[in-house]
Amino acid sequence: MDPYEYIVNLSKDFITLINRDYVYEIVNDSYCREMGLARENVLKRKVAAVWGEEKFEATIRKHLDDCFAGKEIHYIDQFKFGPFVKYMHVSYYPYRQGGEITHCLVFSHDITQLGEIESRLSNYEYRDPVTGLFNRRSLNIILEKEIEKAKRSRSEKLRALLFIALENMSKVNQAHGHEIGDLLLENTGLRIRKVLRGSDFVFRFEGNELTALLTNISRNTDAGKVAQKIHNAVALPYDYKGTELLITCSIGIAVYPEDGEERNILIQRAASALQEAKKRGNTFLLFNAALHREAQERLRLESDLAKAFDEQQFELHFQPVVDMAGSLRGAEALIRWQHPQRGMVPPLDFIPLAEETGMIQAIGRWTLFTACQHLARWSSRIDLYLSVNLSARDFADPQLLELLETAMSKAGIKDPRRLKLEITETRCMEDPERTIRRIAELKAKGIDTLVDDFGSGYSSLGYLKRLPADTFKIDRVFVEALAESCDERDYLSRIIDTIKSRRKRVLVEGVSTAQQYALLKDMRCDLMQGYYFSRPLPASAFEKLLARDAALPAAGG
Q1: Which alpha helices (H) appear in 127-219, and where do they start and end?
Q2: Are strands 471-474 and 505-509 parallel, antiparallel or unpaired?
Q3: What burial class does residue 226 get, using C-beta atoms within 10 Å of its C-beta: 0-12 exposed, 13-18 middle, 19+ buried?
Q4: CA angle at residue 354 from 338 to 441, to 5 degrees?
């Protein structure tokens, strides 16, 4: 016997030599014995034929290819030898003949006993201790493997990742304690597990968020069907000491490969779909690229909005308010955002965002103080007023009167009647009694409040006699069809007459044509505002308008 062959066969480790066609050329006795195969049934056979196509494609082939490319490979994996599963430490070494890599020399060492100890320890590392479900670390590993499997498969291409946010858990914890909350969380995980197939996975992602991975679906809509089943299972009430405990959920879905071909992207997009489902109040929502782009754009805009103050990107424009003769009587201060890349950002794009993020208060105060500074510079026109829009939060601020006095004092404004505040009718109706008190307080200080968008609310005329405001701004929707509809003219005329019968002034906004202007004059409207007279103007252009002191429109608007 060849002495090298004798040494190889004497080794308890498994030793094989595999050529570039993935065919065994040398196998030692230990390898054949553990495989339960005669040497002649292994030699000259392909590795895939011995280990099975799935195992070969899943792990072995990649390591062999890397070895043939010149790399040494070392890893630990599970292998089935007959009825037994063993943990093996496997090493691949490039084997060269004539300077070229012709074979791969493979050494495998049985570490089953150590592997079993590690397996027990891994339960702590890869499982959530509260629910017993796989944890976030497991999700990363299993999702990665499923993506690789899908890439190799010719038929089973689709995978779906579902992010499940459990609602009401904080209420349960608060009312019944975290121990009961943990039990419900564990049981809810089991309910979801029962809805899924054996090949699917459930994970605890974090907090009250669970994740499900569907490993083989025929079409994207199948994920929606499973999501509905999960929702129904979760929504079944729990009975605790005669009290029904209700858990609901929202679900966001991302599908491989349509919504992403990488683990992190799929996770991100399933989470994005979940946030959109919560926002819309949907049971579940499949990821939508357009909605995702909208959410990303919103986040960028929010970040840019935070920088706008420091970088002085805000400015005020002023839209003239005229009397029936077209003479300038006042102006409305309107904030504009001059973004360095986007250009002029419309208020409708950033004011709602500012309200949601709490930045509206800072914007409101900047607008107030800046408007007062401009108004002070127009001291030659003491009859001219300037109105500033207030958010509901600003209007309800207990410090509002003090804030107004500070803003006017710093700017040097002596007559408070030159400053007016605007608040929408909808905001007024949120708390009518408080609104009435606040308008009265402002009036006592000489500051008039304009009720903006009047007529758009559900109870406008009913509260008219009680609101102590002196001026009501009629919403532009009543002006749009004024020239075309007799009914619209009659309706608007009645509103104006009702307001004036209470000795209030009427300001109509949205006037855009000469015909509308003429009709409103016939209706004895006190003040008007709109593009027919002038668009909102930057401060320099508005000051030129003041200096000209001519009736509007200057040239047909």
Answers
A1: 136-152, 169-176, 178-195
A2: parallel
A3: buried
A4: 110
Is residue 408 within 8 A of residue 380, CB to CB? The reply is: no
Residues contacting residue 88 through CB under 8 Å, at least 6 positions apart: 14, 76, 77, 78, 79, 108, 109, 110, 111
- Token pair of 152, please? 């190799």
State the Cα–Cα distance between residues 193 and 508, nearest whole angstrom.
62
Tell me the mean pLDDT in the region 537-551: 92
> Is 210 strand, coil or helix?
strand
Superfamily of domain 300-548: EAL domain (3.20.20.450)
Overall average pLDDT of the 314-328 stretch: 95
- 540 CB-near residues (< 8 Å, 6+ apart): none
> Residues 6 or more apart from 398 whose CB is under 8 A from it?
none
| Other CB atoms within 10 A of residue 468 CB | 17
Q: What is the pLDDT of residue 524?
A: 92
* pLDDT at site 557: 44
Beta strands (DSSP E) in 417-554 are 419-424, 448-454, 471-474, 505-509, 527-529, 537-538
CATH topology of domain 3-116: Beta-Lactamase (3.30.450)
Sheet strand arrangement including 159-167: 201-206, 209-214, 159-167, 248-256, 284-286
Q: What angle do CA 403, 406, 408 make, to 5 degrees?
A: 110
Burial 318-333 (b: 16+ CB within 10 A, else e): bbbbbeeebebbbbbb
- Mean pLDDT of the region 185-208: 91
CB 284, CB 253: distance < 8 Å: yes
For residue 532, the one-letter residue type is Y
Homologous superfamily (CATH) for 127-287? Reverse transcriptase/Diguanylate cyclase domain (3.30.70.270)
* pLDDT at residue 292 greater than cutoff 90: no
